[in-house]
Amino acid sequence: MQHLPIPRVIRRNVVLFALSQSFTGAGMQFAYGLGPLMVIALTDSAALAGLSVGLLGLSRFLVSYPVGRITDSYGRKPGILLGLALALAGTLIVGLAMLARHPWTLILGMLVFGMGMNAAQQLRVAATDMFPPMMRARALGYVALGSLLGLLISPPLISLAEHLAHRLSVEPLALPWLFLPALIVAGMGLVTLVRPDPKQIGLQLRHYYPDYVPAERRESLSGGRPFTVRTLLANRPIRMAIIANCAGVGNMAIVMVLTSLVLHHHGHSLSAIAFSHMFHAVGMFMFTVPLGALADRYGRERVMYPGVAVALLGAILVTFTGAYSLITLGTFLVGLGWAAANVAATALIADLAQTAERGRAIGVNDSIAGAVSVLMALVTGPLIEYSGLPAAGLIAILVSLAPLPPLLMQWLGRNDDSNS
């Protein structure tokens, strides 16, 4: 394995992206932690509890591939800034919808906010552009680590909003969203300072890493033809990466709804719920650098599949235990497992896609994950309403098993080949 020094300009860009992520990432904690409670507050229906997570998934499905095309054509920064501008508008719509108690406006706001935040996830593509393959998973970890500051911001911001809301006699679930625009504007300012555009760095890696010896030049995934989703999915390693990532995403989409509702059912405050979700986010982001280093050293699949297994264990704890500490541990493990699967899967796709098609390739992965989130949201609410929380948790566990059938088929196929 080559050990290459990271050029100063790339270190600077990574720091700027990480800081931007720290400011803007607090909003996603609001969406997952407060979203189910906001929906129930405006609809009085537990059957719709998964709606907020479903809207985030739908927004990811709608925006990820189109924004990938934009960043492949015009550079990573325009797509990221477009996303943050949409997120800024979405936060205002959500906050005002809660103040006015308009469910349909809340749905619009969550969709716009989710489209913006998911479009801004092209920041991950930018990170992979700036590093050679043997350092890409760690690069994703460096950027994701910036979200930890967002974790420190989120609970105090919710506590302050809750305190002020009671004093001002306004909706406590609305005020946190009206604090977010200042953080998003700061994040946008940091992104504008990134130079040159990471796509340009990706096209000239040898210029920035003179000692980098690239592997034998590969054809594009499309074999010189226009990029297509079908060609991407025909690649088995990429297909398995997408399945593993979707298993982690689907598990997490359900567990995030369950965590809020279970803790709320036991009488815990918004601050306590936010604190539990903070541990989930710690699992998502604190260990991304060591997980990335493991994926770079030992291979993507050796981190990706164990990550899904850890998420499955977390879902069991959230579903079948009742203590605050065990539920919080479970939601932490779901976040940790998702991080391992996501970092390794994204790095694997980035390895196999050339710079000019990388935004679309990772966009396809994100879009499919968004569709899975929507499906899980459609299932979660009715299950909670009519069968109780454990039934929804059982679905989260089953979703985590999605990579198992194709892995067994692959293993059986290898055994048949060796015996023939």
SSE layout and pairing:
Layout: H1 8-24, H2 26-43, H3 51-74, H4 76-100, H5 103-119, H6 122-129, H7 136-145, H8 147-168, H9 175-192, H10 198-203, H11 205-208, H12 229-234, H13 236-265, H14 270-285, H15 288-298, H16 301-320, H17 324-352, H18 355-387, H19 389-400, H20 404-419
Give a description of the structure.
The protein is an all-alpha fold. It has one domain: Up-down Bundle (Growth Hormone, Chain: A). It is about 80% helix and about 0% strand. It has 20 helices and no strands. Helix 15 crosses helix 17 and helix 16 (about 300-320) runs antiparallel to helix 17 (about 325-350). It starts with 7 loop residues before the first helix and ends with a helix. The model has no long low-confidence stretch (mean pLDDT about 85).
Short description:
The chain has helices at about 10-25, 25-45, 50-75, 75-100, 105-120, 120-130, 135-145, 145-170, 175-190, 200-205, 205-210, 230-235, 235-265, 270-285, 290-300, 300-320, 325-350, 355-385, 390-400, 405-420.
Determine the mean pLDDT.
87
Helix content: over 70%
Residue runs with pLDDT of under 50 for 5 or more positions: none
Largest sheet features = none
- Tell me the Rg in angstroms: 21 Å
Tally of DSSP helical segments: 20
Note the overall shape: globular
Number of DSSP strand runs: 0
- The CATH class turns out to be Mainly Alpha
Classification by helices and strands:
mainly alpha
Order of helices and strands: HHHHHHHHHHHHHHHHHHHH
CATH superfamily: MFS general substrate transporter like domains
* Oligomeric state of shown chains: single chain
The name of the CATH topology is Growth Hormone, Chain: A
Domains (count): 1
Distance between the termini: 35 Å
CATH architecture tag = Up-down Bundle
| Beta-strand residue percentage | under 5%
